[in-house]
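Issue 218. Parser rejects a valid record. Input:
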Amino acid sequence: MIKPTVNEGFVKPIRIITLAAAAVVIAGVFGTLIHFIEPYTFPTVFEGIWWALVTASTVGYGDFAPVTLTGRIFGMILIITGIGLFTTYITTLASAAVTSQANYLTGKKAFTRDGHLIIIGWNERSRQTIIKLREAGYKNRIVLIDDTLEMNPAKEHTFHFIRGIGSHDEILNKANIKEASTVLITAGQSRDEYQSDTFTVMCLLAINGLNPEVRCIAEILTEEQTENAKRAGADTILKANSVLSSVMEQSVINQDESPVVIDRFNRQFKIEFLPVQLEFLQKNINEVKEILLKKQYIFIGIKKGADVELLPLPNYVVKQDDEIIAGRF
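Output the parser choked on:
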């Protein structure tokens, strides 16, 4: 793929303002002077300014034009000085627009809105999460942080992309972490399990240092790093390997449930977190499944504080502080 050549810096707004002010001053000065030089051709100062703007911008309507030698020499001076200034101004505006768009596509443009979701790490899970959030009517803006991508992977620009390492303060501030509502950290594909979890913990520490109030959801691959993630500030921990191991186990043991397990995250499948009511309290998993089936729900797992456990052991007894994860079509 051909990489676009991108100017690392933005066109400074002060330059655009200065050029615009200079253009206005030149139009005002030349327009006023031509009115006094040829008062019959340019009856008011406004007509003089109009002529100066039309001439300097090379539009040239021809409705006003100097007829005296002095006026024409004056017009020549305006053409020589004004056209260069106006051309520079228009070129600067175009350059600013192109640079801004290029910086947006390549992840160099800061995010300035608030109440957004930050996702750290681009992979298939991130992509599917964004798709399902949009399909579910999630209205908050989404910011993706990733250091492996060179350009925004979303063709329809459904999220803001920032290129960089999610554990660095500079990148988190560029994503406006202090105004974010939620952060989701996914396990990186380019790292081994230990490195991935270490990176997740580093991200949590950096995030907690910049915004202790933001809700953090972290994907952890190794059991050893679970407690570290909790201490680093994770509000919810997703044990990806434990989930997959449980699904594989249930698929092997309970063949009749395999189609349900495989299709559990079908696009038409709606997942809900149900509070533990009296009918679920102190019931084991098999009893909970039977109650949910009567209500046309499919049991998925249990949320215990910050931990999410899919397909727990059948002898697990549901407690008051648990949440039941279930879904239905």
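Fixed in the parser; the record now loads. The domain at 253-328 is CATH 3.30.70.1450 (Alpha-Beta Plaits).
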